[in-house]
Amino acid sequence: MQTPTDRHEYPAHWEADVVLRDGGTARVRPITADDADRLVSFYEQVSAESKYYRFFAPYPRLSAKDVHRFTHHDFVDRVGLAATVGGEFIATVRYDRIAADGRPASAPADEAEVAFLVQDAHQGRGVASALLEHVAAVARERGIRRFAAEVLPANSKMIKVFTDAGYQQKRSFEDGVVRLEFDLEPTDRSLAVQRAREQRAEARSVARLLAPGSVAVVGAGRTPGGVGRSILDNLRDAGFTGRLYAVNGALQEKELAGVPAHRSVRDIGEPVDLAVIAVPAERVPEAVAECGEHGVQGLVVVSAGYAESGPEGRERQRELVRQVRTYGMRLIGPNAFGVINTSPRTRLNASLAPEMPRTGRIGLFAQSGAIGIALLSRLHRRGGGVTGVTGVSTFVSSGNRADVSGNDVLQYWYDDPDTDVALMYLESIGNPRKFTRLARRTAAAKPLVVVQGARHGGAAPQGHAVRATRLPHATVSALLRQAGVIRVDTITELVDAGLLLARQPLPAGPRVAILGNSESLGLLTYDACLAQDLRPLPPRDLTTGASAEDFRDALAHALADDACDAVVVTAIPAVGERSAADAALAEALRSASAAAPAKPVLVVHVELGGLAEALSAAASTAPAGTTAPADTTADGTSRVATTADGATPDGAASAASGPAPRTAPVLPAPVLPEAADGVGVESGAVDSRLIPAYPAAERAVRALAEAVKYGQWRQESADPGRVPEYEDIDEKGAAEQIGRLLVDGEGSTTAEAGQTEPGAAVPAWEPGPAEGALTLGPDDTCALLARYGIDVRRALPAPTPGEAVAAAEHLGYPVALKTTAPHLRHRADLGGVRLDLADEEQLRRAYAELTSLFGEPEELRPVVQAMAPRGVDTVVRAVIDPAAGAVLSFGLAGAASELLGDTAHRLIPVTDRDAASLVRSIRTAPLLFGWRGSAPADIAALEHLLLRLSRLVDDHPEVVSVSLEPVVVAPRGLSVLGASVRLAPPPARDDLGPRTLPVY
To answer: Are 360 and 418 within 8 A, CB to CB?
Structure first.
């Protein structure tokens, strides 16, 4: 796309899709010589005032010389970026590298002048702020460290763009012009500003999908029962509060099922916010183009035949995303089940669920339509006729999640006033680093419960493009828990935990009181508490003759006890007068619980439908007479088949155009709480003290244990600790060394002293070498680590007995003789190590023993190392995992720890609190703290080592792997006896870079 005189090829990695402030999207890309006509057209649509602000003088049109200058760049010293919608420019930014005197310059000059121009119709959408993030990242990549901008004082909008960005800047005023200078190095404030803008923009983009003012269903047929027609009927029957349209190219009539009908979206005379597309995959591009040209803001594509169907479908899906984003829209799907918003303000059921769920405080996200059906069904059964009106606020089934993902929905839920608890079923995580960051922030405000499917399948589900990881699932799960995510294994546990968290306060601790009218059930509950690491108090048996008043008094007493953090009530059915007894017991539990609102209460009931419904009636303001759906299956789910649209003359979707399966639960008519005068009220008016009931003690206790752990995390996250500063760290010197090594390609892939050979046995919790990674030699490894205060004891090669003796004399006796062959390294149990060799005679004898037992020196690769003080052998590693990000790992050295998987992990950067908990979280930690009378290890020195290594990896993304093994932690100090470091070029963009939508 560039002329032969350009110095660099077109930088395709600068291209990105971004979400703007209003929730729409734009494409950011470099400007090329092919953009001359687009630039001229763009400039003609800019107002005279904006042109004046850009050029400081009237400038009605661009000359041919201007057009050439603004479209021809070398992508190093002169760069131009454009934001586009529909292929046309809506804003531009450019920088020109300058010298200290302001004249054009080349590297090593590190300052550039920057200028923006935004079309008036798109001002106020955050376009300039997004372009500033991207052009700053480009400039840093090209060695520019500082921007300068000259702005007229009256151009307050552009001044605000610069001042609000969060960079450190200087401002001066001369000759009637404001001059701004700012460093491009990201600061804590600039990063916070960027992420706050990201959250607002992405939340707004999801809000436009979930709370539209108007919806068009494309593919709604005349015949009831098809996919498109079913969605249209569901929207109408749910009482959607906005405008609803049916669209089908074969329709002649003006109305379909009581809804205005049109042959094309273009024919609708009013704006359309959301379009649901239910046509065959080959007709989707035409429908998308119509929607884009009409200004539709977002799409839900239920059509199948995309990435889930194979390589051809995957390419069709990529083209769909490109087309959707070209028009500035967001997309849910394809192959989606749909979206639901139960708010009385919206009443949106743009899904294949034939009935609206109850209004409630739980947000649901599911990548699988089948699991979405199951979740909605279970929440209906558990949240309606069983334990009170706890329903759904919003529901999103993303299908292949080609665009909108769980990350986007998390951004929306974070400050959604209608959602108190977030439940997510994930089969893959497209951007785990971002998910972990968003989960940590969300979990600090409201519970986030996640169940992950396909975690043992070894491959992502069809239709989901994800980054590969070599971390075991248990490690990924542990990292998510550190971010505050409540990790469960089944959708039953997901619902169990969600109902408790939506209805009850968080427990202050693990102490659990147990009371009930069955001694056996109480003992089962007690054992279940112990199994979940809770601290149960002795169960209180009220005997089978206990009355409702006895339960109320016992519960009130337990809740008043300062030694109790939560109460589990167990109950078995009474003989005779079941309904009256159940209602009385429910009222007794409700009244006692309401008197102590700071402690959670759970009920374990055995076949007590009456009690469960009575608990619902006692605590809910829902209308009486609500019944469960008829014709339920064995698991309590009631279903109705929804037939696919046939290939009918009216052009409805074919059977292949909708997501499988084609069944959905029959949910009851919506149940809204009512005020005394019968007028519907907001869901927030429902009593938040609904008492969740469980059919088994184990399920209740498991949910309570998750709430306890989450409550502890909330307390700890309030003071996460700090990342300490070390004055002796040479960050600049390390960066220069790393850059030189990557340019020169200096390194080794052979096992030298203190090195791990590629192909050697690697523990399951350590990812292998990054593709194209450079393994440093021992000298460079030691030098780089030393810049961060990590000293490695040198090991000298000993290819012959004589050289072994010379090495020992250089290091000083006593010494250790080790083999570094891949099959023997770090395996003292195999006899490949000889310690405490006090003189030459012992050294030569040990050398002879090793070679006679294991082979020739060329195979063994022996080294000599000075003896370190005795202590506990540990292993410290840091890796950049393509999925999880930067991870710090710690464990004791030895085969036993590896076999048992006794390794702990923390996300980098690690705080001082993280380092302390990392050391103490492995099961073998007592060995470090004076187990059985041994001397305690120097924990402070170990924690500082962890913090220093975390800083190294966090400061330099080129460091993709560091292994310190063994690290001998003595009573005073520690010794790093072996180290390996791998480098690789950093990713062009990561989660710390400018805002960008993922490309799958």
So the answer is: no
